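Lab meeting, item 3. Inverse folding demo.
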């Protein structure tokens, strides 16, 4: 295990222990809050905690009424009832409950609850947090699910998941004053996506395409950074209630094993993620395109476990396209929550896009442009 991973595990356990011991007076006021800070999460499978690690084997946070989760998906399919069953029971949609693993809208363990707990520790005692997740596994820009504001005839309208996310946030904004009285503050956006556009797809074929000689689509650096992510950030900042040009938007690096080791495969018929580097590079260059953005660093994880052979990721919940190890396990997902928190704090200092010759060169090739205005990042 790399030294950096050992350090983060230690920090994570210490933080959870401090919280459990009453480090910030978690439940003193229940849901009687003066202010609610809203944190949205979206993307594909890693954003919704697609992993198989069992309870009791990964760090957890105590349940607190000061962190509420919102059931954003109507007619079931996206929320879980009190017993953790899915889909949601009738009448559960558009309601709130204290956040716990697994979160509503999440498969197992993602990074959103860790981020929320770290944020909570910085807030006044009468402030709470609302988390909502509208991510869906196996989705991206190439399948049109998250595309927005495109003039390309291939994408004639906003992607269904982008539009659905806006609808969910509009609904949350409408019901929160009655269900959870207190001031509404939109705080941050957390995003994890990229596998679908970096090769984990069946384009131009149809699912399933495992072990078929399909020419998998792989986005370029400029296309993913500017045409896809840049427009998505602008779209959400413009349409989410309470968001603005200064609302922090944090993305996260992909699983290193998948982008490094698996992408170096030498199969002659099928090599799914060979060429995934441009998307990974674009993810880490997000702050060269938009202000108040940052990237949660997944490079704290080695490609392989200590034996040098076992992929360092979730062993069971693999890619539905290729069978590759592609997801963080639950422990890694919690650790990524710490990385999202660190990236969020860095993003607050990015009041204008970071200078990048590579990103600037994109603007001469017909791609969308970086937005260079100076803004005040909100927190």
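The presenter then showed the designed sequence:
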């Amino acid at each position: 295990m790399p030294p950096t991973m050992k350090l983060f595990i230690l920090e994570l356990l210490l933080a959870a222990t401090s919280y459990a011991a009453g480090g910030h007076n978690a439940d003193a006021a229940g849901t009687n809050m003066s202010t609610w800070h809203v944190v949205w999460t979206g993307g594909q499978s890693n954003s919704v905690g697609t992993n198989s690690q069992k309870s009791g084997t990964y760090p957890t946070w105590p349940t607190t009424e000061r962190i509420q989760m919102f059931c954003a998906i109507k007619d079931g399919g996206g929320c879980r009832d009190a017993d953790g069953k899915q889909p949601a029971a009738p009448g559960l949609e558009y309601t709130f409950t204290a956040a716990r693993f697994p979160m509503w809208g999440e498969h197992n363990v993602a990074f959103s609850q860790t981020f929320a707990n770290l944020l909570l520790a910085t807030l006044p005692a009468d402030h709470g947090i609302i988390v909502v997740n509208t991510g869906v596994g196996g989705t991206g820009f190439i399948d049109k699910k998250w595309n927005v504001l495109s003039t390309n005839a291939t994408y004639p309208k906003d992607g269904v998941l982008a539009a659905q996310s806006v609808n969910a946030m509009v609904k949350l904004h409408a019901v929160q004053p009655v269900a959870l009285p207190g001031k509404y503050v939109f705080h941050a956006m957390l995003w994890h996506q990229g596998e679908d556009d970096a090769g984990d797809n069946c384009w131009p074929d149809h699912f399933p395409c495992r072990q078929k000689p399909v020419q998998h689509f792989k986005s370029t650096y400029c296309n993913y950074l500017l045409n896809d992510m840049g427009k998505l950030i602008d779209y959400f900042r413009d349409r989410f209630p309470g968001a603005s040009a200064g609302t922090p938007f944090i993305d996260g690096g992909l699983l290193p094993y998948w982008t490094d080791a698996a992408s170096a495969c030498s199969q002659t018929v099928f090599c799914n993620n060979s060429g995934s580097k441009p998307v990974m590079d674009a993810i880490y260059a997000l702050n060269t395109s938009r202000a108040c953005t940052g990237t949660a660093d997944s490079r704290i994880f080695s490609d392989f476990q200590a034996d040098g052979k076992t992929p360092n990721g979730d062993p069971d919940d693999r890619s539905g396209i290729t069978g590759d190890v592609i997801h963080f396990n639950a422990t890694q997902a919690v650790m990524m929550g710490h990385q999202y928190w660190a990236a969020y704090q860095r993003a607050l200092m990015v009041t204008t896009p970071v200078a990048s010759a590579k990103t600037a060169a994109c603007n001469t090739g017909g791609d969308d442009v970086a937005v260079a205005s100076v803004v005040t990042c909100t927190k």
